[in-house]
Each structure stands twice: as C-alpha cells, then as structure tokens.
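Supplementary Methods. Inverse-folding protocol.

Structures were first reduced to a discrete structure-token string of length 377. This string, shown here, constituted the complete conditioning input.
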C-alpha cells in the first residue's frame, strides 16, 4: 500500500495538490508506516470519489444547478469536498439541525417559502446564535445591524434579536421575499443576500446577464450558493457520506414555555430564573438575544423551561417585591475619595460583581452622593 501512496504523493505534489493528498490519506485511514488496517467503508478512497460524483440533477429552491456550465461542476465538487473534509463540523451540523431545523421549516412553510432556504443558516452560522463576523454580522442568519433593524429586529445595548431563532428567521423570510421580488430567482436572491442588492444589480447591468451561473461575482459569492447546496446534499442524506446517527445521538428540539413579562424597571435575569425554578444560564441559553445581566423595563416575550409557566408570574412578582425591598437595605452612598476598587475592597467583594450589580462599566465615573447596591457575601 505504501508504494502506491508514495507515487500518488509525488504526482499530486507536482501538480500542487498536496492538500488533496492529505485529504485522501485522512479519509482512507492510511498511516505513514503503510499499515494495512481495515477501515470503515465511508473512509476508503473509492467512497471519497463516489461522494463527489454527482449524477442526479441538483436544484436550489426548485431552480436547476447548471452543472454543465463552465467550471460549475468543479466548484460544486470542491465545496462538497471541503465540507466533507471538516467532518467534526458536519457532525455538529447534523446534531444541531435536529434542534433548530424543525422551527425554521415550520416558519418557512407558514409563509409559503422554499424549504431549501433553511440551508442558508448552515452556510452562514452553522446554526450558532452567538457567532459573529469581522464585518459585524451576527446570529443564525448573519444579519448586519442596519439590515436587521430594517427587517424588524431590535438591536441595542439591551437586546440583539439577530441571536433569536424566531425573530431572526422571520426577518430572513421577509428579506428573502424582498430579494425574490427584486431579482425573480432564488439563486440571485441568495447571491444578493451575500453581497448586497446594489452590488448584484450592478453586476447584472454591467455583464448583461441575470443568470447566477453566468455571472462573474466576487469569489465569496461565487462559492456561497454552492456551499449552501453542499450542505443540502449532506444533510439530506448523511448516511451516503458516512454519517450514521441514532435518535439519541442528535440534540433534542428546544423545549420551552413562552411567557409575557412586564418589567417596570430593569430586572435581574436571576429573578426570572428563580421564578422559573431554573438557573441564570438556562434563561440566557433559551434567550440568547438578551445582553448582560438584566432585562430592560417594558414588555418582553421570554422563554422558560417547559412546564414552569403555571405559577411563574406569582413567583416572579414575589421575587421582584423581595428584591426591591432588599435593595433598599443594601445601599451604599459614595463619599469623597471613594472609587470602585476601594469600595469593593472595603466590602470584600470582587470588583466585577460590584459593577454588574450596579450596571456600571469601566468608563463610568462615580461621584459623592451616588447610591450603589452592594450584596456582601
């Protein structure tokens, strides 16, 4: 076995294909010593080649993928290979899909939108609510702030609804409807989602073509749709590509109760957690759009653990009353010469805790007469 791979390495290295050689080694399970261990079927070389052999017609939202066009098949195979190369990432795609995809599918169906749009979230965020880009995009659908606000998302110091699966999916559906009305094709809509409407409109005018597969677009956008289709291929038939899961392997769908909450002042998330008989972390995980340690004054729709809503509001009101009364007994009035560090040291508490309790930051100065809430251990 070793001589074969030795010749293959020389051949592909001369052709500048060392990365492909490493990929073949990884997927076949070959070792440097040339050991001939039996390897599972999906990892053998012939399986790798068959995985990228596309024989059936492909489509995106019902629009054919034009594999016969110059370079399209090669680029499609490249994106499929690169996706399969990162097998741990694909495992997480599949496991997370069982948690989030049913919610996205239901919302797309309610608005008569193509189901294939759900795979955009794989290419954009790999279904991670907190992932951000260097350009400022955030959340499941990677909205920029301006685009998110334009499509109904609240984005400020208190809340970032780009990280909310329901709100961001509703915004994405609205945006894709606008793009389809503008361009008349889902392939072009996806391209515009990636590079912006005006950028795509300019390329269509200059190149005098409105076919995605005929347009020369920025390299990221040329890859973008094919990355989405690669995710569709893998997630539609994971066993074909060597990913076999039992139901127990997959992450369970989100289970929650949704409650309406009226807050008359900034309220600690901890109080919501206590009223729901759960932890601060669970409330933050169920509501990733909430920033910091407090919810702002006003009306909120909050997710809490399933089964904890029945007497939630009575517990919440009791907790708020107790917190308000307790807070009055824990006020420290700042005097001349005080600073946050000396106050924290005096009460033997961590400085970050003092700042969290009083919603302070490093840039905010305190002055004599200011009132600080302190909860010494």
């Amino acid at each position: 076995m070793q001589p074969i791979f030795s010749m293959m390495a020389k051949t592909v290295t001369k052709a500048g294909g060392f990365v492909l050689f490493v990929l073949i080694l990884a997927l076949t399970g070959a070792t440097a010593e040339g050991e001939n261990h039996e390897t599972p079927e999906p990892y053998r070389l012939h399986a790798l080649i068959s995985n990228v052999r596309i024989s059936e017609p492909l489509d995106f939202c019902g629009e054919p993928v034009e594999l016969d066009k110059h370079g399209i098949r090669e680029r499609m195979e490249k994106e499929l290979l690169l996706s399969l190369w990162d097998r741990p990432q694909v495992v997480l795609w599949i496991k997370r899909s069982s948690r989030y995809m049913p919610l996205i599918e239901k919302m797309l169906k309610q608005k008569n939108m193509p189901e294939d749009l759900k795979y955009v979230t794989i290419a954009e965020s790999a279904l991670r609510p907190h992932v951000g880009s260097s350009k400022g995009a955030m959340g499941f659908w990677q909205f920029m702030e301006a685009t998110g606000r334009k499509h109904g998302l609240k984005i400020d110091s208190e809340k970032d609804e780009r990280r909310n699966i329901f709100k961001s999916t509703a915004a994405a559906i609205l945006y894709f409807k606008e793009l389809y009305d503008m361009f008349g094709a889902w392939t072009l809509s996806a391209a515009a989602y990636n590079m912006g409407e005006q950028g795509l409109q300019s390329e269509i005018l200059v190149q005098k073509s409105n076919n995605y597969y005929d347009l020369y677009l920025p390299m990221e956008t040329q890859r973008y749709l094919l990355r989405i289709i690669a995710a569709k291929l893998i997630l539609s038939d994971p066993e074909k590509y060597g990913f076999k899961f039992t139901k127990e392997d997959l992450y369970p769908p989100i289970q929650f109760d949704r409650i309406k909450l009226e807050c008359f002042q900034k309220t600690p998330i901890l109080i919501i957690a206590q009223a729901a008989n759960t932890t601060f972390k669970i409330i933050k995980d169920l509501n990733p759009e909430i920033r910091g340690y407090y919810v702002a004054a006003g009306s909120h729709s909050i997710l809490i653990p399933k089964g904890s809503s029945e007497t939630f509001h009575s517990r919440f009101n009791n907790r708020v009353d107790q917190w308000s009364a307790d807070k009055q007994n824990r006020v420290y009035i700042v005097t001349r010469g005080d600073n946050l560090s000396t106050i924290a040291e005096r009460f033997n508490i961590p400085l970050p805790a003092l700042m969290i309790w009083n919603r302070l930051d490093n840039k905010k100065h305190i002055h004599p007469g200011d009132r600080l809430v302190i909860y010494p251990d």
